[in-house]
Design brief:
about 400 residues, mainly alpha, DUF6596, RNA_pol_sigma70_r2, WH-like_DNA-bd_sf, sigma factor
């Protein structure tokens, strides 16, 4: 990849949300904002190799996108009023009063997460408009077809426009009931950065994890006593702490039990543990993110995988299942059960999830590992093959391929 291509890729990761948010503020239309931002990046692809990368790529992209947006509005309207509206939107208007957090991207998130939209639609729309994820990446995150996801996002933008959903951070009294949807969005954005779903992207996208953490910190300043905000921040920090140890030099995923724990970010681990302890001291019933953070705290507290307190991990998963009985949570619980009660017990629990997780690569990867531990090499190989077929990330594919190739030929 050339220096210019790297600059364009970096600009997309770092500036997409800023450009879309800026255009949404000016024009009040997500379709206009998204299309103009996409056209601006397409123009960068054409011009930067010849003209050079501008000193301030974000400013260049924003200015170009603004011009594209005005051109689109003028093309689509034959009424002078619309022309005037477009020009007024481009002029420097006095800044309007902002909410408690003065961040255009956060305002864009709350717009995309409005309760008038279904929860999955809110998340998908924000992944596209704020995270800048492609439609295939978002579809993989939801385990649905790309065409269906595209229709969902199109309908969501139309509903926002028709219902005149405001582009703003909610008032203080409305924030608690709105924040859960935002947290779900940020967690999915973080997950896409933690381990990208696309086969042609970097396996880890630090800009996305950093953005999710940054916005979660901002929300925490607004809701300092909200346990789930603190829990999500702790969860992100404890996962992010392991990032540099998660992918080997050859691009292969490194599983938790094989990671160099000395390479973990000690400062992030310390901060994450502190947040978990603060929530325990609060004495309030924990929510989903707080329990997930506590599970990660147990893992990151062990200096060696053999020191992991698996009984505590399973107990925390039992608590989580009472809040979230999803098959993915049940799968993760079964993986922990294998360390306490053995692979055969865990395999029985996992096999009961087949109908719900047949299209999920991690389900087949977990089965493959348990079958390997039980000496059932042929069955394990078949499960690895299925996991490799379904995995979208090159780092995961490399890891699963190595594990499969290490199997002996003994069958039972």
């Amino acid at each position: 990849m050339s220096d210019v291509e790297e600059a364009i890729t970096a600009a997309h990761h770092e500036e997409w949300a800023r450009v879309v948010a800026s255009l949404t503020k000016r024009f009040g239309d997500l379709d206009v904002a998204e299309e103009a931002a996409a056209e601006a990046f397409a123009t960068a692809v054409e011009r930067w190799p010849t003209d050079g990368v501008p000193p301030n790529p974000g400013a260049w992209l924003t200015m170009t996108a603004n011009r594209k947006a005005i051109d689109r509005i003028r093309r689509e309207s034959k009424r002078d009023g619309k022309h005037k509206e477009a020009q007024m939107a481009y002029d420097d208007d006095p800044p309007e009063p902002l909410g408690a957090i003065e961040d255009e991207r956060l305002r864009l998130i709350f717009t995309c997460c409005h309760p008038a939209l279904a929860m999955e639609t809110r998340i998908a729309l924000t992944l596209r408009m704020v995270g800048g994820l492609t439609m295939p990446e978002i579809a993989r995150a939801f385990l649905v077809q790309e065409a269906a996801m595209g229709q969902r996002i199109t309908r969501a933008k139309a509903k926002i426009k028709a219902a005149r959903i405001p582009y703003q951070v909610p008032n203080a009294e409305d924030l608690p009931e709105r924040v859960s949807g935002v947290l779900a969005v940020l967690f999915l954005v973080f997950n896409e950065g933690y381990l990208a779903t696309g086969p042609d992207t970097d396996p880890v996208r630090p800009t996305l994890t950093a953005e999710a953490i940054r916005l979660t910190r901002l929300i925490r300043t607004l809701l300092p006593n909200d346990g789930e905000v603190a829990g999500l921040l702790a969860l992100m920090l404890l996962i992010e702490a392991r990032r540099t140890a998660r992918v080997a030099a050859n691009g292969e995923l490194v599983s938790l039990d094989e990671q160099d724990r000395g390479a973990w970010n000690a400062a992030l681990v310390t901060e994450g543990h502190r947040l978990v302890r603060e929530r325990l001291v609060a004495g309030e019933a924990p929510g989903r993110y707080q329990i997930l953070a506590a599970i990660n705290a147990v893992h990151t507290d062990a200096r060696d995988v053999r020191d992991t307190d698996w009984s505590q991990v399973v107990a925390l998963y039992d608590q989580l299942v009472s809040l979230d009985a999803s098959p993915v949570i049940a799968l993760n619980r079964a993986i922990a059960v294998a360390e306490l009660d053995g692979p055969e017990v865990a395999l029985g629990a996992i096999d009961r999830l087949e109908d719900k997780l047949a299209g999920y690569h991690a389900y087949h990867a977990a089965r493959a590992d348990l079958l390997r531990r039980l000496g059932r090499s042929q069955d394990s190989r078949a499960a690895y093959d299925k996991a490799i077929e379904l995995a979208g990330n090159t780092a995961e594919t490399a890891y699963l391929t190595r594990r499969r190739d290490q199997l002996g030929l003994t069958t039972t």
